Each structure stands twice: as structure tokens, then as C-alpha cells.
Amino acid sequence: MSLRLAVFDVDGTLIDSRSSIFRAAVEAAHASNIDPPTYDQVRAIVGVSLFDALAMMRPDLDNETIAAYTHEFQQAFLRFHADPDFSEDLYLDAEETLRALKAEGWLIGMATGNSRRGVTRTVAKHGWDDLFDVTFCADDGPSKPHPHMLQRNLDALGVATHEAVMIGDASHDMKMARSACVRAVGVSWGFHTVEELQLAGAHDIVHDFTELKALLNDFNPEVLPEAKRASY
């Protein structure tokens, strides 16, 4: 009997962190004495591990400055989470969809550009210990769009590439899935546009969790996705 694995990105896919990530990027820039980024600059790099993401956004800066910017970004998020009034909402029906998939026998994995500390905090906050079979993040190896993080999900659960679906809001997620020969499902409600997801190789694009659940209901692990690999 075939297995079914749904691997989820977090920021922009399950959690609406658009405002907080942009705010952290701006506050960290001010603390690092560099020009603050625009929202479009920030949204383009979300999903990539933090140091690599900031280096991608600001190729004009040296490694020492990027390291300082990374530190200030992390400190900003620590301040946010220390504030009892701070919240990042789950997208509508995210929780219900995860729990429905679990009840139907799906394996559920995570592939996120967050740190392990961030993953632990998120899982604890939302009570997801019983939902995710495995979680892999930026601390576990090469950053998206390298396929390493997704491959770790597959290997840990003994799942073949054609038995898995990668679900994310960023082109980095789609390229990672393509590189791993896994079906790439883009969601339109996060950081990247539908056009960007299409250009990155998304097999499917959904516009809400109801549509995502319907797509996964029809998922046939015996039908191999197109084997085209994307560069990373």
C-alpha cells in the first residue's frame, strides 16, 4: 500500500507572518545601521535560511555586516515573542486541514527556513506535537531551494518521491520540490505571486485550504509527477 506524505512550509503557508517578518527586517536594518528594505525585497527571500536570505537581499554587504543583520533580525523576533500581545494568525482552515489529513492517514512533514528554535516554539504554541511526523529546518542542512530539507523528510519516513507533495507559498519551495522530483503545490495567499510560483515550476496552485484539501483528496501516489528538475 502506498504512503502519502504532505510536507508543509510554515511562514506564508500555514502562518500569516508577512507583517512580522517585514517588521523584523526593518527594525534589524535600523539596528545594523543599514538602509531598511522594502516589503517586496523582503518577501522575495522568505523561506531561505536567514543568513543566506539576507545575503541574497543585500549582495552589496560583506559577511560581517550580514552576520550582524542576521543577529539583529533574530533579536527582533525574540522581542516580538516576549510581548504577550504579539500574535501571528494561522491562515483560515490551516489547522482543520492538517488535522483532517492526519485523521485520513497522511504523514505530515515540515520543511521551513526557520531555525530549530523557531520550529520548536511554533509547534509548542499551536499544539502540533501530534501532527507533524518529522520537521526539518534551516539548521539541518543546505537552505531552500536545495532539495536537502525535503529529501530528509522522505528518507526519515521511508517515502518515495511520487508518494509526496510539497506545499508552499514561495518559489524556493517549488524549486526545491522540482529538484527532489516531488509534486510541487503552490499556495497563492503567502509571500510570492501566482506568476512567480508558476515560473518556479508549480504543478498546481491553490487559493484556499478548501481547494488544497480537495486536491490532496484526489492525489494518486501511483501517478508520477513530471521528472523535470529545477536548478537551485
UniProtKB/TrEMBL annotation:
It holds the Pfam family HAD_2. Gene3D superfamilies: HAD superfamily/HAD-like, Putative phosphatase, domain 2. GO terms for biological process: DNA repair. GO terms for cellular component: cytosol. GO terms for molecular function: phosphoglycolate phosphatase activity. This is Phosphoglycolate phosphatase.
